Amino acid sequence: MDKLNVRPSMKIMSPLNLKLWLFILLGASGNAVATDGTTDIAKSYPKQYKTWEATQEQSEREDVLANNPRNVILWAGSSYAKEYHTPRGHQFAVADVSHTLRTGVAPKAGEKGLSASCWTCKTPDAPRLIGELGFEGYAAKNFTDLGSEIKNVVYCSDCHESGSEKLTLPRPHARDAMAKIHQPFEQQSATVQGAQVCGQCHVTYYFRPEKSNVVNIPWIFGNSADDIEKYYDTRRFYEWIHPISKTPMLKARHPEYEHWNRSKHAELGVTCVTCHMPEAIDENGKAFTNHKVDKAMPYFKSSCKGCHSSQEKMKQRLTNLKHEINAKAKDVEELLVKAHYEAKAAWVAGANWEQMNDAIMDIRHSQWRWDFAMSSHGIYAHNPEEGRQLLNKAIEQAKSARSSLSKILKQLKVEHVYYPDISSKAKAQQAVGIDEAELVLEKKAFIEEEINKHWDPVAQRGY
Ligand code: HEC
Ligand code: HEC
Ligand code: HEC
Ligand code: HEC
């Protein structure tokens, strides 16, 4: 495995680095240089540091595929069908991306493996490496080759300028994205800047295959599901070909910023920071920002209560919203699972692209909307109205796909469509040819040989 040697001190000092060193030598603050090359403010702000560290307490997470095996069919052919968990505390971000079956197995001989771009939203070492290697140079590296370079997890310098408490977006693609939707970071109020620092990572993205897999936030036409779909359709982009239905698929990923952006709360100036890291009071009665970024309901008293008086009523309201959204999502999923298999039956019976085009496009668009709603963690709380609209349209599109397919199947005299048993994760994975036990073994070997021997302990946290 080729080891990079690009520590800041090994390079010719840039004017910026020089300024930084002078700043430290002159003892302006007593701060140290962090391993990501920025001036570390942690020592100067113990309350923020301690609360930042405390996200380690949020170690619980759920297995999404076990909770809902339909996902395995919908994501068949993509690595999401192998393993997918709900998010947990920031302190686990590096370890979780290192340990999941989706990323981080040594590339097979002659294969390129996964792009280093998968590090981008886990660590301030990503913007450092982007600075050192160039955006494309960084993305062209293999994910595992940069593993030993990753020493920090979602840290001060991901949100604050080096050596200061001033907010910033160190990721160039995130700065560009905010400008694309006419919300350039520099021109925003401190409140919106707070949301945008979260929006560096809590947004949907894809890797640009024609540009060494650099991360891109596809907001050229705007950041709604329709706008992003238009962008992907115009570029005839797809992430993978679905092995069952042959649909060129799109994948949405945690579009929290997008949904919040259009919500009632955003209009009121209530941001991610208001709800997930609200103000706290220290033992001397002094206010500070609680950096234990957590679910929002634990903070009801310090964040919601000013506007929503009853915690019990809010709990009930959220439970109802969650049920409503999940029920609609289930309708889409059941329709789409059938549609994928009906398309397969049509192909097997000799259907051609001319016949199949409308149905396949409906599957693509329906699953995109479903994913854009459901891969956003907490849409029922962030923007339930958008969730309803997305899922209603996804239901319409999936029904339209099935009605086209039913005509094609009739024309082709297909009377029976095979739908496999997907009543558990194991059965669903078996249906799409995923051997979890084998993947786990491969992963275990990689963890023992590579992560445990050569990577920073931050990559083992929680394991
Ligand atoms: C995920 C983003 C994020 C990370 C990581 C982060 N901060 Fe902050 N920080 C914020 C936000 C947002 C605010 C609030 C800004 C506002 O509302 O004006 C803030 C405020 C502050 C402030 C101003 C005083 C206060 O409490 O409001 C200090 C000091 C600070 N952070 C220090 C740190 C330190 C030290 C670390 C690392 C241990 C850190 N931050 C990590 C986002 C972050
Ligand atoms: C550098 C990228 C990055 C930034 C910046 C970032 N996050 Fe995260 N966030 C993540 C990742 C990655 C996870 C999932 C970690 C895991 O599951 O291992 C996560 C998880 C979370 C969770 C789930 C916590 C839990 O215990 O369930 C919340 C809530 C959250 N982030 C909110 C925020 C907020 C609010 C901000 C801005 C103040 C923010 N994040 C900034 C990357 C980031
Ligand atoms: C009005 C308050 C509010 C705002 C604003 C808000 N959230 Fe949330 N968020 C919630 C609630 C409520 C949940 C559901 C989980 C809970 O707290 O019970 C949630 C869930 C989440 C989760 C999933 C946590 C998990 O473990 O399942 C993430 C991640 C998240 N929010 C990130 C963000 C980001 C990023 C923003 C800003 C772009 C944001 N939120 C804005 C209230 C809010
Ligand atoms: C600055 C005031 C304010 C704060 C703080 C606030 N909200 Fe709200 N919230 C509102 C208003 C106003 C509405 C719209 C009226 C309504 O539906 O109650 C709303 C609506 C909602 C809705 C319904 C959303 C919809 O579109 O139907 C939920 C859920 C919600 N809030 C949850 C929360 C939670 C949870 C918190 C704290 C983590 C919180 N809010 C903090 C003002 C606030």
How would you describe this structure in keywords?
single chain; mainly alpha; Flavocytochrome C3, Chain A, domain 2; two-stranded antiparallel sheet; binds heme C; signal
SSE blueprint:
Layout: H1 15-25, E1 32-33, E2 39-40, H2 46-53, H3 64-67, H4 70-74, H5 93-99, H6 125-133, H7 135-140, H8 156-159, H9 172-180, H10 190-199, E3 206-208, E4 214-216, H11 225-234, E5 240-241, E6 248-249, H12 256-261, H13 264-267, H14 272-276, E7 279-281, E8 287-289, H15 300-303, H16 311-348, H17 353-374, H18 379-382, H19 384-411, H20 425-431, H21 436-454
Antiparallel strand pairs: 1-2, 3-4, 5-6, 7-8
Helix pairs in contact: 16-17, 16-19, 17-19
This protein binds heme C (4 copies).
- CATH architecture group name of the domain at 8-60 and 79-202 and 271-306 and 435-460: Orthogonal Bundle
The first-level CATH class of the domain at 8-60 and 79-202 and 271-306 and 435-460 is given as Mainly Alpha
Q: Kindly state the mean pLDDT as a whole number? A: 93
The CATH topology of the domain at 8-60 and 79-202 and 271-306 and 435-460 is given as Flavocytochrome C3, Chain A, domain 2
Question: Strands across the major sheet, in which order?
Answer: 1-2
The total of beta strands comes to 8
Small-molecule components bound: heme C
Q: Please estimate the helix content.
A: 40-55%
Give the CA-CA distance, first to last residue. Answer: 23 Å
Alpha carbon gyration radius: 23 Å
Largest sheet: 2 strands, antiparallel
In percent terms, what proportion of residues is strand?
Answer: under 5%
* Overall morphology: globular
Low-pLDDT stretches: 1-29
CATH superfamily of the domain at 8-60 and 79-202 and 271-306 and 435-460: Flavocytochrome C3, Chain A
- Discrete helix count: 21
**How would you classify the helix and strand content by structural class?**
mainly alpha
Order of helices and strands: HEEHHHHHHHHHEEHEEHHHEEHHHHHHH
